[in-house]
Design brief:
- The chain is mainly beta.
- Helix content is 10%, strand content 38%.
- It is built from one helix and 29 strands.
- The chain has one helix at residues 302-341; strands at residues 4-9, 16-18, 23-26, 39-43, 47-63, 67-69, 72-74, 76-81, 84-85, 87-88, 98-104, 111-119, 126-135, 138-140, 146-150, 156-158, 163-164, 169-171, 177-184, 186-193, 202-208, 214-218, 229-236, 243-251, 259-261, 263-267, 271-273, 378-379, 386-387.
- It has a 15-stranded antiparallel beta sheet that branches. Strands 16-19-24-21-22 form a five-stranded antiparallel beta sheet, with no helix packed on it.
- It is globular and about 90 Å long.
Length: 407
């Protein structure tokens, strides 16, 4: 998913609704999840809507709460882009989290038309809140645009006290901080309230452009193993002058309810869109990681365990290498000892190594083997030492060779 996208509200005039049963709801739906601009379009029964955008990918969001029936859910929906089927998500009766309705990734740059059709029996309601798209590459004028800025954008600068899951940065370590540069007139901080962190509300403080600090309460869950609240708006800054700004956010808690962020929304944003790549990270392509495994529960730091494992591995590898070198050196020493003790009966050939050796500079002498006799002593061509050359024994009376050093 691209790190810079544009968010369009369900009330935007570019969205054309068909059917008389559409109505608008206001207030918070979905158990604390973000309702963009405070309203959704809803319908019980059949209906549709369509819109056109200029970009390369698009996602539609709403709220769950469909009714489970014996034959499935009510209502159901399908989406198309340029008359081609779009991937959809299964309906759910869980109203406590925002719900991606349909998605289409990495279409070619240009103008595209999306259509959503709802089929309902009148039991459950369908909710549509917003769509988010990646614009065509090029400069984006900030007037009227709300920018979705993901945590993998280089504008975010997290310190070492944060941990990252598939689509979330999270920390409950005292003093954890993050800074962000943006261009716009207002910023909203969006993240999750993890269900595996019960009780004990905490707080964070944010500072805009080095100004006065603003403290925000981070409400925790009232019971253990609660359902995670997705897409929660933790705070929205006051209205700023249009232009470049910086924000610094610091966690004030002490291993209590964590501070999280999935993305920020910047109104009247100005930025330059870049082409989306097929290698972009998408949360749906990764297995979700429990947030409790990525933050400290008792002051421990996961980096220590990683470093310890790495040092231990290097130490073991070093011992193996030293042991191998020792064996090779010992083998080489034994081989040298064997060479030193080897007797060479024929000066032209080395029996120990099977190699040719330098010929003697002295005149070669032919020795005759008389029965039972021995040749006179000869001189080694390599060392000059006096050697004795024995007559080869007959097959009928083979005796054990004399031991080394007996001559």
């Amino acid at each position: 998913m691209s790190a810079q996208r544009i968010v369009v509200d369900d009330n935007d005039p570019i969205i054309q609704y068909s059917g008389f049963a559409w109505s608008k709801t206001s207030g918070v739906e979905g158990g604390g999840s973000l309702i963009f601009e405070g309203s959704q379009h809803t319908i019980k029964g059949n209906g549709s809507f369509s819109f056109t955008f200029n970009g390369t990918s698009v996602d539609l969001y709403g709220t769950g709460g469909q009714i489970a029936l014996s034959g499935g859910y009510d209502p159901l929906w399908t989406c198309t882009i340029d008359n081609q089927h779009m991937a959809g998500r299964t309906p759910t009766n869980d109203t406590s989290e925002y719900w991606p309705l349909c998605s289409s990734n990495l279409v070619s740059e240009g103008t595209h038309t999306v259509t959503l059709n709802v089929t309902g029996q009148g039991n459950g309601a369908f909710f549509f809140d917003r769509f988010v798209y990646t614009p065509n590459s090029g400069p984006i004028n900030g007037s009227g645009n709300t920018m979705w800025l993901g945590i993998n954008n280089s504008a975010f600068h997290f310190d070492d006290n944060w941990s990252m899951t598939s689509d979330l940065q999270i920390s409950n370590k005292p003093g954890a901080s993050v800074s962000l540069d943006f261009t716009g007139a207002e910023l909203s901080w969006i993240g999750d309230i993890p269900g595996d962190f019960p009780g004990n509300a905490s707080s964070c403080t944010y500072v805009i452009d080095g100004g006065d600090p603003v403290t925000v309460t981070l409400d925790g869950h009232t019971s253990p193993n609660a359902t995670t609240v997705k897409d929660h708006a933790f705070f929205t800054t006051s209205r700023l002058s249009a232009g470049a700004h910086s924000i610094n956010v610091t966690y004030n808690g002490n291993y209590d309810t964590p501070l999280t962020v999935s993305y920020v929304l910047v109104t009247n944003a100005t930025f330059t869109a870049v082409p989306e790549s097929s290698t972009s990270v998408s949360s749906s392509a990764q297995s979700p990681t429990s947030s409790s495994n990525n933050v400290a529960s008792s002051g421990s730091h996961p980096i220590g365990a990683i470093a310890g494992g790495a040092v231990g591995g290097v130490f073991i590898l070093t011992l193996v290498v030293v042991f191998i070198l020792y064996l090779r050196r010992r083998k080489g020493t034994k081989g040298q000892d064997a060479d030193d003790k080897a007797v060479t009966p024929f000066p032209a050939v080395s029996i120990a190594r099977g190699e040719n050796v330098p010929k003697s500079t002295t005149t070669a002498t032919t020795h005759v083997f008389p029965d039972g006799g021995q040749t006179p002593p000869v001189t080694s061509a390599s060392t000059g030492a006096s050697l004795e050359v024995h007559k080869p024994p007959n097959r009928s009376d083979v005796e054990a060779p004399p031991p080394y050093g007996s001559h």
